[in-house]
Every structure is written in C-alpha cells, then in structure tokens.
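Researcher: Structure prediction, please.
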Amino acid sequence: MVNTGDAHDPARLRAVTAAVAAYVVIALGTLAALGIMSAAAPRMATQQAWVHAVIVAVFAVVLPLRLRPARSGSLSALRAIGLISAVLVLVNVVEVLIPGLFPLWMRVVMIGIAVLMAGVILLVARERLANRPAREHA
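Model: Predicted structure follows.
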C-alpha cells in the first residue's frame, strides 16, 4: 500500500518545488533584464542592482541543490531551504527600505522575491509540522 504521507514522497514538496522554480526564473529574468538595460537604459542597471542580482542568482543555484535532498526526505536540507528563504526575505525587505539604492523596477522585483520566499518559509514550516513525530503523553 502506498503511504501518501511518507516524507520521501516527492509530491509532498510540490508547492516548495514550484516556489523555488519561480524564484529561479525571477533571478535569471532579473539578470537578463539588467543585461538588456545595460545597453538600452544604463541608469536602470546600476552597479548595486547588478551586485544584488548576482547574489540572488547564487541562491537560485543553491536552493535547487538543497531541494533535491529535501524531496528525498532530508530534514537538514528542508531546514536549509527555510533558512535561505528567511535570509532572502530579510535582505530584500531591508534593501527595499534604503532610499535611492535601487531603481523602482528592481524594488518591485525584490518585494516579489520577499513575498515568494515568505511563502516558502510557511510551506517549509507546514511540512516540518506535518512530519513531526507524535509524542505520547504520560
């Protein structure tokens, strides 16, 4: 009999997988947009925007690497996804709040990433709670 509640069932992390995939698309799209803007509208592709986008792209590589073992049931990989997501929320929110640091379009992308990663945190927390072993009360 198949146990759909099994921690090793890849379908259990389907929403996290979709969110991470969306994050990767946004990160790569941001790099592409910066490349185009560097030629067409250099004022919109600031050095700060490039630095931020490259760092975001690094996490776009790391998150899928952690997702694979998490889908295989690794609790530490799932925890890493939650921690990385929390860092991304915090950094993006703080940087958005610094006046004049980024162009408006980049701030919108950063807010979108923060919201997406907040969703990942909630999904990871839900998954952790769902897989918590039941404790017997004496």
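Model: Helices lie at 14-40, 47-71, 75-96, 104-130.
Researcher: Thanks, that helps.
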